[in-house]
Amino acid sequence: MPHVDLKFITRNLTADQQQAISDDLIAVLKKHFNSSDDSVSIMMHEIPADDWKSEVYQPIIQANMNSLVKKPGYTMD
């Protein structure tokens, strides 16, 4: 039962765009986890660029750098 919590800088995505992203993520999860549509949940958080460092980078990315499967190519010191 995969759950995806996607955080990204505000893009003002339409409902159709959000659905397209969700559909693509579900396809990947079904392929690699042998999941069904009903077992997947997805949450999307649009974060204002000015808040990225304090809300995402420092507490989530930087604090877990050693555990990240894919590390970012940027720093925010």
UniProtKB/TrEMBL annotation:
Pfam families reported for this sequence: Tautomerase
SUPFAM superfamilies: Tautomerase/MIF
Record keywords, A-Z: Isomerase
Gene3D superfamilies named in the record: Macrophage Migration Inhibitory Factor
GO CC annotations, alphabetized: cytoplasm
Catalytic residues as annotated in Swiss-Prot or TrEMBL: P2
Domain 4-oxalocrotonate tautomerase-like: 2-52
EC number of the protein: 5.3.2.-
Origin: domain of life: Bacteria
NCBIfam families xrefs: PRK01271.1 (NF002324)
The name this protein goes by in its record: Tautomerase PptA
Lineage of source species: Bacteria, Pseudomonadati, Pseudomonadota, Gammaproteobacteria, Enterobacterales
Gene that encodes the chain: pptA
